[in-house]
Every structure is written in C-alpha cells, then in structure tokens.
Amino acid sequence: MNHWVELDKRYFMDTGHRRLEVTLVRGEGARVWDDAGREYLDFIAGWAACSLGHCHPVIQEVIREQASRLILASLDVYTTPQIELAELLLSTSGLAKIFICNSGAEANEGAVKLARKYGKLHLSGAYEVISALKSFHGRTLAMVAATGKPEYQAPFTPLPEGFTNVPYNDIAALRAAVRERTCAILLEPIQGEGGVRIPSEHYLQEVRALCDERGILLILDEVQTGCGRTGTLWAHEYSGIRPDIMTVGKGLGGGVPIAAFLANERAACFGPGDHGSTYGGNPLCSAVAAAVLRFILKEDLVGHAARVGGDFRERLLALRGKWDIVKEVRGRGLLLAVEFTRPVALAMAQACCERGLLVNPIPPQTIRFMPPLIIGRSEVDQAMVILEGAINQMAQVAASSEGAR
Which residues are annotated as modified residue N6-(pyridoxal phosphate)lysine in the UniProt record (predicted)? Predict the structure, then answer.
C-alpha cells in the first residue's frame, strides 16, 4: 500500500472511499501528476470546481497579489473584492441581492433559510421546501433532507422537518406536492450527481409557472451547472426562465472555496442579524472568484464549453454503435455522462485511471466527465482513446462472463 494511502486510512474518518487510489501532488491545466511522477488527464477537475484547470496563471497571480494585501476581514467592515464580485455576479445573473459564503452546501442552506423567512413574511408561515429524488444539494443535515436520496438520509434520521422529495422531471408530482405550507421548490437545472439528468424541454418553464401560480419561490441549484459549465453561463438559460433564488459555487472559485446565493428583490427578505459567515466573502477568495469569472467571460469559455463539449458528446454518442455495453449518453457542454448496461462504473473509472484518465464513477452504471472549461480538442482526443480502450476491456470481460454461463 502507498505510504500516503496508508496514512490517510489511519487518520481520517471513513466517510467515503477514495475510489481511485492515486495520490496527486501537482497539476497544470487539464493534467495532474501523482507522487510517482505519472501523468493523468483530469476529467473530474475537483468535481467541476477547477474551471480554469489546475494552477492557472490568472489564479496564481491574484492569490499572490491579494495575499500581500488583505486575506480576511470581519463582516463589520467593507472590502472591495467582495463588492466587486457581488457586482459581477448580479450583473450576469439578472438578480438583485447576494450573500457570499464558502461552499455549495452553505449556499443551499442559506437559500432555504431565505425561503423560510419569505414564507413567514408573505405565505402565512409556510416553511416546506419541495426537492427532487436523486438530487444532490450538500452534506449538511438539512441538505441531506433536501437531497432526494434515501440511502444518504437513512443513517441520520430523524431529519429536519420541512422537506419533501418528489420525482425529477415530473410536473404532476410537483403540483400534487405543493401545499399551504410550501414556501419554495428547490431543483438542479441538470441533476449532476444523479447521473447528469436533463429535464424535458418545458419542465423548468412549467415549474416556474407553478411557482408563480401558487406564489411560492423557485430556487435553482447552479452550484455544479453554473459559470459556463453547460455551454451557457447559467444552465437555466436553456429554459428561458429566471429563478427567484439561485445558488452558485464550485467553478466560481476555480479551485478556492467560495459560493453564494443570489435573490431577486421579492425574495431578498433577510434583515440585520438574519445570516452571517466568518469566512464568507473573504477578500482572498472573492478576488480569485472575480478574476475567474472575468476570465471565463473575456475568453468566451462559455462558448468554448458549448463547442468542445458538443463535439465531445457526439463522439461519446458514437460509442453506442461500437459496443452494446454503452446504453446512453447524456449532458450539455462540459458536463457529460455515459451510462452502461452493466454495473461497471467503478471498474470503468479504474480502467481509465490505469490508462491515464481520471473520470468520476456514479455507481452502479454511470461515469461522469467534468473537465476544465479550458480543455482542448487534442486532450479530448486523448481522453477518447483511453476511454475506448477501457470500454473495450469491459466489453471483453462481459463477453467472457456470458460465455462462461
């Protein structure tokens, strides 16, 4: 066993298996290197957080500059990087007010908290939030209740009350679940951890109409899908709607921990003392996030994600004609997934890793691709060669297993 792996297993709580036994020590662009000097293409990118790849010069420079000025200050005072980031996010989202925090889970907690305050003020004390099965909104206790995965919820019951989970992409189920105590609906525009599930064309429009009809808030979790990941700056743009509250994170920081929730004027009902965060909006991370978002916009990485991601998706779709083991390809931009006919996700990810490509397994049958937004076509070419080799290996194993029967 690798020395670092041994120490990790000794020191850390067993909250989840590191499914790829690789110890990374360096990264540059879309590539990383392990402690033995082996190179990998990184198509996980910190679960879509490393939007500009690893150690991008823009991020290095702003960290050096801001760290020499001011790293942290309390929210009792004003800091310019926080205000600059707020202006940039609000101007690109069309929303009115913002709170900057540290992680997607915190952003979703804050969004739910804001919706409950709205329900108390405007909906006769309504407090319940409806979310979707197979969703993912974070690991805090409340967000486990919001996340529609019974296997995540069972070890921690009783969960905080006020959350109802219904099937995704089912407007009838949503409509039936709305009650007098409902204050909001919380959805991902595309379910990421749920397997990169894209809703039907008019689903989000119907949800928006339902919220307007019942006077409740629509919260969209863009923590994974935002900041250009899907080929538009915000994934909900595909539906032509706007949420009342939106959460962002991951790719916003390009690798540093930062997130936010944004709201329109109607929903932005927090008052003094209602919310806070020691590190939220700190000058260092705010400066990095502002630089990352400006770079994404200036270099049209949104369009790049649409173009390169579209080509990547077409090449993945072609795999279905080569191997029966490939069941379905889903995704938009640079958030893509391949589902297999057999429970081979983990074995497929390990086979790719052995060949020099890091992909994210979503057991039992799906692997997910979230490369940096700066990914080049030649790197996609290399990834496809590795992926096809891994699929061919899995297909041969499957054929041998069938033959043995």
Answer: 250
